[in-house]
Each structure stands twice: as structure tokens, then as C-alpha cells.
TrEMBL record:
Keyword DNA repair attributed: no
One Pfam family cited in the UniProt record for this chain: mit_SMPDase
A GO MF term: sphingomyelin phosphodiesterase D activity
Assigned keywords, A-Z: Membrane, Transmembrane, Transmembrane helix
Topological relation to the membrane, as annotated: Single-pass membrane protein
TM regions (residue ranges): 656-676, 682-700
Single GO BP term: ceramide biosynthetic process
Major location category of this protein: membrane
Domain of life where this protein originates: Eukaryota
Localization per Swiss-Prot or TrEMBL: Membrane
Name recorded for this polypeptide: Sphingomyelin phosphodiesterase 4
Length: 706
């Protein structure tokens, strides 16, 4: 019976491959739904790797798949893809569970694993992550061609996670860009909410057969739950690759195995590209980077961080496997790998505004109190007091606050703070660390780490004395302090190594990181970046006797291109250069005529415009420039020059404009059609101009106010 089944599977796969090039996506999905429902697991087993590759693309990036990273909600195929890959009712997940019940395995080459994991396996050492335990396949050709045998759920999640970091050939050629409303980004959010729910429990899998259960991530007893996750102590002995741990079918682990698998796969594929030894080597400029994350990659990591905070903050007192998982999820699974990931990004990311994605990921991690789900009055970061219950989190993540802050400062002094976006990032960090009670928590954590070793050893025996044994009631507090010291020191040594040289965040070395000139420039840039419409704002000036005078701040603003004056022609309007829309001959003739009239009747014009009554206002409408006062406010022009240009005078230059000439010709032609002669048309034009000036004099101020 095996041969007919194999032939039928091959025939089914050949038909699907042919349809992939001829049928549209919605029809292919409809066919797949019928196939998944009707065919048994034995025949679906052979098409599963091809189907996963056709959806997510190949691991080498040659096959693009469905281009989930470029598929947006505006596309007609968006809803089809989202329904097909939905974790609750999607046909793809139904196929995964159908194959899971039959214990099928699918191979992944070790070469596609993250660098540190691949290096461990090739050196013959068992990786720290239990996800890769008991799954290695040993070929006869040697370790270099090792494969991992994953169950269907693991295989699906590995390809889904790897889709983010695969350098797709089609994406680079298309020139298109990603966004946070892409199908991939939304699917990540959907999978996180489904398998790591903040409310309720993980929905049970469609099968309950023990054959489909996943092995527990690591052997563990009921007394030490999750003890081995993410702890990278230098004193731990490394297990040899040929001594993989035996399977431990822990019933409690089976309840949340999908949650653990999804999280470990995301963390390993997205974050575990750097180890402590590798990061120390990367400090040498001769060493090439093994992996360079993209902005899209970092945005997805931030989504993961935010959801894990919300997930762990939804912890309930019940003794359930999911609640136990929430208690350790951030510290044991994410902390070290995210720390090295962020440290690498801080040190190697380009000095431009795209660093904002990395910065916000860091700030999201160090502020778990923002994701508690509590309905509180919204307050600015600097006014929101950090609750005392987060003191233990700050201490157990001390390097996330202190070391990364120092690395950020080193980056900030090399950044162009003239750029308002770069200055705003420094301002964001300052606002976060200025939150009341946070600096005290960080200082206390540093004091605990700097606690001398001999004091710690001297204090510990007394800490466990009870009052009946001669101790005091203060001994319980000493025990708590000892435990806190141990936690902080373990955290720092696990992330930086036993020989790390800790630099205090509030020490004297850090205070001179930004000099006075940089701080002054930063403050001025921040002020200008928060102004509305800063391009239209004037440089900083003071009013002098002859006009505006620039201050030192105003000069820096002009030099750095932050603000500018509205440069306009400030001389005699009659003498400005002849424009392309003006007739040069008419400009010169009309200038001579207007100059003659102004010289002859200048005194009368001054007398008329000086009158406070209606005639004076009417004269000023025709004989003065109403925009001269506005130009005074937006330019450092001297008052002497401006006063000379504000003298009442007749200007005939508008009549030299081709537009004016065309309008007059059209008006005279229209008058001729109505049997008006040139004299009558001229009188009508003058009358219309006089009435317009009259109305503007009467109602101009009201119109401007409105």
C-alpha cells in the first residue's frame, strides 16, 4: 500500500506546483482548503514542506513566497492570506495539527540556525536553548551537514519566524518598503495574542493524543520549574552534543508546549545572533558583522517585547502552568539575548534617524509598567512615578538601564545633534530616566552590585538565624538583602562575564560625557524641534534702535539651519529688478512719470496721508505699502531704510505687468462690444478702482480680523 500512497502524494504535489503558476491566489487557497479537509495525513505529509516554502519563501531567499512583508490591507489578497494563516481557524494551522498527531518530522539544515547556535553544534556542544535538544540528525558525512528534525508545529513556526530575517531577492529588486500594517506584522501580533494570551488560557489544540505532544523543553521537576531557561552561568558545565537529554513527558509542560515553542522560536531566530564572546570580538574593527538587523526586524522585536510585558503583567495567583510561565517569561527567555541584540544595535547602527526604532524597543523593555493594562489618568513620562513594586525588575535588569544608557550617551556625542530628530531621541531618553523614583531604584541596584564580597559572605550566615537561635528580627531583612545582592550580581555576571568592569551610571566618569557646548546646542535644538512650524519662526533676536539684533542663540540657529529670516526685497519697490512678467520699456517710462509726479506733489501726498480722518485713510490705501510693517517684523532691516521706503508716493509700475495689460485690453474689448468708447471705458475703470479703494478703506480692517 505504500507505493500507491507515494504515487498519489507525488501526483498531488505535482498538481499543486502546476496550479501555483496558473491559478490566482484565492483559487489556490480554496483548493488547498478542500485538500486539507479531504486527504489523510499520509498524503498531506509530502506537500507540507513545499506548502510552507511557497507561503513564507525559501530559507535562502530565492523563492519569495507570498511576500507577507509587503502585503498590505489595501491589497485584494490580504484577507485571503490572513484567513488562511489564522491560528484559530485557518486551514494552514489545521494542517499543522493534522500532521502533528502522526509524529512526522521535517528537517532544517543547521546552517540556517542563528550564529551562536550553529557554532555550538559545529563544535560538538549542546546549545543552551532546549528547543534544539533531542532533535539533531547525524549524517555519515560529518557534522557540517547536520540537520534538525522538527515536528510540524516547530517547522511551521521556524519558517514563519525566519521569513523576517531572510534577505529576499525579490524585495531588494522591487524597491518597495515595509510598514507595520503588513500582513506579516499583523500575523505576528495575532500569533502572540493567541498563543500567549493576557486574558484566559491558551485554547486547547485540536488533538489530545499523546503521540502529538511535544517533548518538554528540558527535564525539570515540580520543585524547580523553569530553572534552566535562559540562565547562562559561566560555571555551568557544557553538555556534549552526543549526550542529548532524554525526553521528559511532563504533563504540565504539555499544556503550554505551543506557547513555549512559539516564544523560543521567535527569540532564537530574531534575537540570538550574538553571544557574549562574539560581541567582544566584534569590538575589533577587523571583524565583520555576522548579522545586521533591519529597521523592520527591530520593529517586530519591539512588538514582541511589548506583548511579553503585557503577558507577564497579567499574572494571576493561581498555580497553573501558564501563570508559572508568565512569571519567568521575560527574565529567563528574553533578557540576555535582547541585551546583546540591543547592545550590538547601539554600537553598530548608522548615526541617523532610523535609530528611533532601536531606541523605542529599548525604552519599551525598561518600562514594563506601561503595559499593565491598568486604566489610569494619562500623564507625561516625567510626571508618572514608577511604583515600588517594579524595584525588583529594575535590579534584575540593571545592565539594561545602566550599561545601555552609557552606550547610548557614547552614541549621542557622535550624533549630529543639529538634526532635530536626533536631538528629540536624546530628549526621549531624558524624559524616561527622569521619571520619579526610577533613578533611586537604579542607584539602589548599583549599590547592591557593588556590595563587597566579604561583607556578603559575612552577612549570609547571620541572615538565616531565627530569633530563637539568637538572631534578631532584623535577620529576615538581612536575608532579603542578601538574596537581592545575589540576584543583581548573578544578572550582571551572566550578561557581562565574571571579569566585567562595571561603570556606575551615577559616577563621576559619566557626568562629563556631554560637555557644556553640546548641552547648549541640544537644548536649543530641542526647543526649535518642538515649535510648531519652526521653519516660519524667526531666529532669536532682541529689538534694537535700528531694528532686530541677533543673539548668540539666534546666530547658532541660522548657522545650523534651524531658523531663518524671511528674506525679501527691502529696497525701493520702484527700483527692484525688472521681472520676466513685466515690459521693460513700460517699467522705465512709468518710473520716470511716477517720479515726476512724486517730486511735484510729494508734499501734498504727505499732508493727505498724515490726516487722521477718512480722507487720510483713503490716501494711505493708495499711496503707501501696507506690507512694510510686516516686513519689519520678519527681517533685520534698519528702521532708517524702512522709513525711507514708507514715504507716501504714487506707484505706476503695476501697469507695466503683462497681466495688467492683458486685463485692460480685455476690458476695453468688452466695452467696445457694449458700445462704450475708450474714454467711457477708462472712466469706468477709474471709477471701479476708486470704489474698490473706498470699500477696502471702510471694511478692510474688519475683513483682516475675520
Amino acid at each position: 500500500m505504500a507505493a500507491p500512497t507515494l504515487q498519489q502524494s507525488s501526483f498531488l504535489l505535482a498538481n499543486l506546483k502546476a496550479d501555483a503558476t496558473t491559478k490566482p491566489l484565492h483559487q489556490r487557497c480554496q483548493d488547498l482548503v478542500k485538500i486539507i479537509d479531504d486527504y489523510p495525513a499520509k498524503e498531506l505529509h509530502s506537500i507540507f514542506p513545499w506548502l510552507v516554502e511557497s507561503v513564507f519563501g525559501s530559507l535562502d531567499g530565492i523563492i519569495a513566497g507570498w511576500n507577507l512583508r509587503l502585503l498590505h490591507s489595501r491589497s485584494n489578497e490580504y484577507n485571503i492570506v490572513m484567513d488562511f494563516l489564522n491560528p484559530r481557524y485557518g486551514p494552514m494551522m489545521k494542517l499543522v495539527y493534522k500532521l502533528q498527531a502522526e509524529e512526522y518530522k521535517y528537517e532544517i539544515p543547521v546552517n540556517y540556525l542563528p550564529g551562536p547556535v550553529k557554532a555550538c553544534i559545529q563544535e560538538g556542544v549542546l546549545p543552551d536553548c532546549p528547543l534544539f535538544h533531542n532533535k539533531l540528525q547525524f549524517p555519515l558525512s560529518g557534522l557540517l551537514t547536520l540537520n534538525l528534525a522538527l515536528n510540524p508545529f516547530e517547522f511551521f513556526m521556524f519558517n514563519f519566524a525566519y521569513c523576517l530575517i531572510t534577505p529576499k531577492v525579490s524585495l531588494s529588486k522591487s524597491g518597495l518598503f515595509y510598514s507595520t500594517d503588513s500582513a506579516y506584522f499583523v500575523l505576528v501580533d495575532t500569533y502572540l495574542k493567541y498563543f500567549l494570551p493576557s486574558e484566559g488560557s491558551v485554547p486547547p489544540s485540536p488533538f489530545s493524543d499523546s503521540r502529538g505532544s511535544v517533548t518538554a523543553p528540558s527535564p525539570r521537576s515540580s520543585s524547580v520549574s523553569f530553572a534552566g531557561y535562559g540562565v547562562h552561568s559561566p560555571s555551568l558545565l557544557k553538555h556534549h552534543i552526543f549526550h542529548q537529554p532524554s525526553v521528559n513527558a511532563d504533563p504540565a509542560a504539555q499544556e503550554i508546549w505551543r506557547s513555549e515553542t512559539l516564544l523560543q522560536m521567535f527569540v532564537e531566530v530574531w534575537l540570538h545572533h550574538y553571544s557574549l564572546e562574539m560581541y567582544q570580538k566584534l569590538q575589533s574593527p577587523q571583524v565583520k558583522e555576522p548579522f545586521t538587523p533591519t529597521e523592520e526586524h527591530v520593529l517586530v522585536v519591539r512588538l514582541l517585547v511589548k506583548h511579553l510585558h503585557a503577558f507577564s503583567n497579567s499574572l494571576k495567583p493561581e498555580q497553573l502552568p501558564l501563570e508559572e510561565f508568565k512569571r519567568v517569561v521575560v527574565q529567563r527567555f528574553v533578557q540576555q539575548k535582547l541585551y546583546l541584540f540591543l547592545q550590538h544595535c547601539f554600537s553598530h547602527w548608522p548615526l541617523d534617524a532610523s535609530f528611533r526604532a532601536v531606541l523605542e524597543t529599548w525604552l519599551s523593555y525598561i518600562q514594563p509598567w506601561r503595559y499593565t493594562g491598568e486604566k489610569t489618568n494619562p500623564q507625561p513620562d516625567q510626571n508618572r512615578t514608577v511604583p515600588d513594586k517594579w524595584e525588583s525588575f529594575v535590579q534584575e535588569n540593571l545592565l539594561m538601564y545602566t550599561k545601555l544608557f552609557q552606550v547610548f550617551l557614547n552614541r549621542a556625542v557622535r550624533t549630529d545633534l543639529v538634526n532635530a530628530k536626533n536631538a528629540l531621541m536624546v530628549f526621549r531618553v531624558a524624559k524616561v530616566f527622569a521619571q520619579p523614583n526610577l533613578s533611586e531604584m537604579i542607584q539602589k541596584g548599583e549599590q547592591l552590585f557593588l556590595e563587597p564580597e566579604h561583607v556578603l559572605h559575612h552577612r549570609q550566615p547571620r541572615g538565616y538565624l531565627t530569633p530563637s537561635q539568637g538572631g534578631s528580627y532584623l535577620s529576615s531583612r538581612q536575608k532579603v538583602v542578601t538574596d537581592m545582592v545575589f540576584r543583581v550580581k548573578s544578572h550582571v555576571y551572566a550578561l557581562e562575564g565574571q571579569d566585567c568592569q562595571y561603570k556606575q551610571m551615577f559616577g563621576t566618569e559619566l557626568r562629563g560625557a556631554l560637555n557644556q557646548g553640546q548641552l547648549t546646542q541640544l537644548i536649543s535644538n530641542l526647543g526649535s524641534s518642538q515649535d510648531d512650524g519652526n521653519c516660519k519662526q524667526l531666529p532669536d533676536c532682541i529689538q534694537g534702535e535700528n531694528g532686530l539684533i541677533l543673539t548668540d542663540l539666534g546666530r547658532r540657529q541660522i548657522i545650523n539651519g534651524l531658523r531663518r529670516f524671511d528674506i525679501q526685497y527691502q529696497g525701493d519697490p520702484e527700483l527692484q529688478p525688472i521681472r520676466s512678467y513685466e515690459n521693460a520699456l513700460l517699467v522705465r517710462l512709468l518710473y520716470r512719470l511716477s517720479s515726476l509726479l512724486n517730486d511735484r506733489f510729494g508734499a501734498h501726498m504727505n499732508a493727505l496721508c498724515s490726516r487722521p480722518d477718512f480722507l487720510g485713510r483713503l490716501g494711505r490705501h493708495y499711496l503707501t505699502d501696507p506690507d512694510s510693517t510686516t516686513r519689519l517684523k520678519h527681517s533685520p532691516i534698519s528702521r532708517r531704510t524702512l522709513d525711507g521706503n514708507r514715504q507716501p508716493r504714487l506707484s505706476l509700475r503695476p501697469l507695466a505687468s503683462y497681466r495688467t495689460i492683458l486685463l485692460l485690453l480685455l476690458f476695453y474689448m468688452f466695452g467696445a462690444l457694449l458700445s462704450f468708447g475708450p474714454v467711457s471705458s477708462t472712466l469706468l475703470i477709474l471709477t471701479g478702482g476708486f470704489l474698490y479703494g473706498l470699500l477696502m478703506t471702510l471694511f478692510g480692517d474688519k475683513l483682516k480680523t475675520h
